[in-house]
Write a structure and sequence with these properties.
The protein is an all-alpha fold. The chain has ten helices and no strands. The chain binds zinc ion (ZN). The site of zinc ion has 8 residues, from loops.
Length: 273
Amino acid sequence: MTTAAALVGLAVGSFLNVCIQRWPRGESVLLPRSRCPRCGDPIAWHDNIPLLSFAVLRARCRSCRAAIPIRYPLVELATALLFATAAARFGLGLAGAKVALFGGMCVVLFWTDLERLVLPDQVTLGGLGAGIALSTVVPVPPGLALLVLGVPRWHLPAWSASVLESCLTAIVLGGLLYAIGEAYYRLRGIEGLGFGDVKFAAMIGAFLGSSEAFLVLLAACLLGTAAGAGLLVAGQGGRHTPLPFGTFLAGAAALAPFCADPILNWYWEYMLR
Ligand SMILES: [Zn+2]
């Protein structure tokens, strides 16, 4: 079962590479067929097999020997691992599919922001819609929704609390990133966060709900600060070097469904002790 999910993940990862390559450039992901960006030669199906072709071709185009970026096998491998882990942990039903879909979208956003500082609307806005829609069938653990529903003690069906949590967290997390971006811009006079980050944060909130989503935001801030400090120490770029905050968000978000529970449990135990 896990092997089957990994194989599906490899194939999906191969398609995600096309999305990462084309969406930030405003190109269609369906047509034309894959070509070498240097010599323009179409890539034959037998040179387009996930992981294997990269190894057989030794990371070079068959016609012109142009280097194939390491991103191609890394995306395929990461997607396969996410799909296999999602299947093992959450099963082959809707819950597993939701985690796999979310992971795949995070893989795309991780690379488009890293390579071109772009978070395509196809993924962020599409993901926001998908996250809210899926909250009707795969419950989002209530956090913010309890604050709203808890006081008047309304008796609503379980799915409506899940949808409310999904929508509320999307608004709050997106709004929070917008506020942070505005404050940063007013203080420093340069844009630290783009509107793409706001939409991505809303998508994360819609999929994960408030407790996991806030943990992701915290982890991304820590990762971003560490990376920024690391670059300064290494003498690579200064304080104005733009950092791909979406890449840190994506890395933390893709792992959240697997790692957040123990961290949150530890936190609540620590707080309530
Ligand atoms: Zn070529």
